[in-house]
Amino acid sequence: MPIRVVVVGAGAIARGQHLPSLLALGDRVDVIAVCDVNADAAEATAREFGIRRSSSDLAELLTSERPDLVTLATPPVAHRDAAIAALGAGAWVLSEKPPTLSLADYDRISTHESEGGPFASYIFQHRFGSAAERLRQLIADGTLGRPLVARCDTLWYRDADYFAVPWRGRWESEGGGPTMGHGIHQMDLLLSLLGDWTDVSAVMSNLARDTETEDVSMAAVRFASGAMCSIANSLVSPRETSVIRIDFEHATVEVEHLYGYDNAHWTWTPAPHVDPAVAATWAPTENVPSDSHAPLFAHVIDCMERGERPRASGADGRRVMELAAGMYKSALQGRSVSRDELTPGDDFYASMAGADPAAATAQIHAGTIRSSAHEVTHG
């Protein structure tokens, strides 16, 4: 029997990724409905993709249709309640990033999972490209030696029109700035390669955009392996790029792309002592790009059929949320933060802005100089 799917959200990400990725799975899935708070948008998207039903009422769909899987292509503020409702109805969940607005919300969702499923998992598609999968193998078997030094950059450009969408750039609806909504993709890929982090020191500022949150963040992160990494997230960088570079004992491996990579975006550089014939075996033999959600969706369907927890769920999906919370806490408190601080009762467990979002905004904006073609003002 095909897995019955409801897609929540009828915007660009649903039309551009969720629905094409699901339909590419053929008779393994049956997309039974599109749901959106805008009933007209839901109907138009359902009609565009030949889906028989649309609705603006997720609760009613969960009761009447009893889907096996619910995918969430909605703004971050809507993820928690929809995920809990779907899990409560017995459906698995596959949600867009960021998973939730806080660690507290993430853990609340997890309490509604059950052994063997349903589980909630999250869309971090860059893990699933063939080059990342191959690198993960080489790290696990020790071929490249210990990771030593790393760099993780998400340098993008978003103008004022982008932030005209009401939920963007606000603590209560997006949870944070590029640390949460943009750099989280590269940061998750980094963590999937290097494993657990132990402590972070970060700085943040709002340099140019009219938002409550940061538009730039930078951090130094130490990993349990001893490796050290710099992280930069920006929404004010005209030459956009996304980069991860890791220096191992026996090689440097680097990927530079924008919103998705294939094998051609990766560089594998052996250390001088490595036999070139050995290094020639490192690159992947297949070429699966990361600019599509399709490999991730196929993985989740595989896990559903086996009754196994997907990757990028549970503790594995939580790790990047912990790092984001640690970065906000470090920047706003002006000190290094250890991972084990981020527990229930901590202000940054409950919110990326800590106890006082207005104060967080003021602190991030303090001293900012804004410029335009006509004037310079102090924000």
Automatic annotation (TrEMBL):
Residues 134-253 form the GFO/IDH/MocA-like oxidoreductase domain. Keywords: NAD. InterPro entries: Gfo/Idh/MocA-like_OxRdtase_N (IPR000683), Gfo/Idh/MocA_Oxidoreductase (IPR052515), GFO_IDH_MocA-like_dom (IPR055170), NAD(P)-bd_dom_sf (IPR036291). Pfam families: GFO_IDH_MocA (PF01408), GFO_IDH_MocA_C3 (PF22725). The keyword Oxidoreductase does not apply. The keyword Lipid biosynthesis does not apply. Residues 3-115 form the Gfo/Idh/MocA-like oxidoreductase N-terminal domain. This is Dehydrogenase. It comes from Microbacterium amylolyticum. The lineage of its organism: Bacteria, Bacillati, Actinomycetota, Actinomycetes, Micrococcales.
